[in-house]
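TICKET #2291
ISSUE: user wants both folds in one file
ATTACHMENT 1:
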Amino acid sequence: MTKSPDEITPTAESIAQSATAASRGKLPPVESWNPPFCGDLDMRISRDGTWYYLGSPIGRKPLVKLFSSIIVKEGEKYFLVTPVEKVGIKVDDAPFVAIDFDTIITDRGPALRFETHVGDYADAGPSNPIRVVFDEDGQPSPYILIRRNLEALIDRKSFYRLVDRGETRLVDHEDWFGVVSNGTFFKIMRASDIAA
């Protein structure tokens, strides 16, 4: 007999079991699942990509990788979903951290292939754009879209490497400093702000 949503008490263990059964070693089809919302789980992803459960870091990398495969974003909220349950989690910034990148050759020319802290890869380009947000103190937070509407915060060392590869291009009658990947120019900042 199937439990009603009110009778389901989600735990990290129950989510992991359901996700393992549904994934079968590949990225689960979370877009096709429509499980009932079962409440919030005391789980958080910090800005540095560390996953916490009940206030303690999750030390098992395979478990973190499994959870990262079933995360979805709806509006500004994040959830873990399985075929049978959906739970809310807290994400301090982005659910992934891009820890490195390499250059590969594609049909559109050189591309930047980013790797996340959980072993996902994304080639920066039209489908996986890079964006940079500056806070009120002028500090950058660079991101790359990894999959669906989920981004990775590009770590500091990788961002410095990106800046080293940067070039200036005219975009909409204005000089911009940015990087090129997969034939697409991604703006980082106005060229006039570099000298400022």
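ATTACHMENT 2:
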Amino acid sequence: MIKFFRKIRQKLLSEGKTGKYFKYAIGEIVLVMIGILLALQVNNWNEARKVANKELQLYSDILNDLESEYSKSEWNINRITRIDRFHVYLYDEANGDTIYNSNQYYNYLLWKHRYVTFIKEKYAESFAIITNKEIHKILKDYIDQENDTNDAVEEWNEHQLQYVRPFLTKYNISNPKAMFNKELDEFAPIINRTKLLDHSKLEEQFITDEFEQLLFSIRFKTLWMSQNFIWLNDRNRELRLMITQKLISKNY
């Protein structure tokens, strides 16, 4: 093609048709510029398509992780509910509204809670890719709620470490003999199958103001932690719905 254009130019020059030569040369330049612009436009289209596909893949990844995180939050809510029911039972027992049940799991008083802000850790740097303003906002709201939930869990754990466990040690309620059961040497069997608290020692504290105030703060923080997981799942459902609608619209 280049040789073809060159021959035309040489022919025009050799025939002395300078005016036609310049017109032809200008036309050739225009054609080259149009070709370059078309190539740039095609390249821009390809890049835009890659960016759009990358964004859709991000939505798909977030959606899959949200479904997994929703199940984990549901598990957390159920677990916290069991702990709270124990606190209610303990309050009723202390006030004589229920009788002692030897099968009741008192080891809840020793537990801590674990939680990881997974979506924040994985997607906090991905906001620049998201062009949909609604998804951008709801994802931010979800991560904010993750932070609030993490704060509630940390506050609950701190209360366990600073107040509940020291209370159990102070009044000799913790049972060292159970902890050093010679038949058990792993954490899970010890914490799940052994009564690590001396109920008779715990019962002695039922009538004290200190114990009643401790129960108050325990339940307050437990319910607050549970509420944050409920809010987290509310945000989760909202975000999943928005992303699902976006993905469906792109397939039609």
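RESOLUTION: both attachments delivered.
EXTRA DETAIL ON ATTACHMENT 2: The radius of gyration is 34 Å.
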